[in-house]
Predict the structure.
Amino acid sequence: MKQKVVIKVSFNGEKKSRTKVMQAAVGVPGVESIAFGDEDNDQIVIIGNDGLDSVNLTCILRKKARFAELLSVSSVDETKEVKKMTELGVQPMVWPIYQAGVPQYFYPVDNHNETCSIM
């Protein structure tokens, strides 16, 4: 189940503080998406999984922006979110998972006649 967290943050009119807050929020484990919610862009809407700790996220944002207030935490229905995205013409993108492997080479060793390789 996903949860939606709304946090009010004061940016002091600087674009650098907005990017610092966004980078700090993305670094928290469990965050899936971030958007600005209010017309004044002083609210951040964060959608994450159950592992998202909203109190820890608010404390981290307070360190970056000097003021952060946790407004609401609510659960999000995943089917409605996917429907809304497809209705608007935006299709969710699925990235394939590639695992880089190290090639392994096997050489046949014929040691039938030797009893000990050290002597």
Observations:
- Strands lie at 2-9, 31-36, 43-48, 68-76.
- The chain has three helices and four strands.
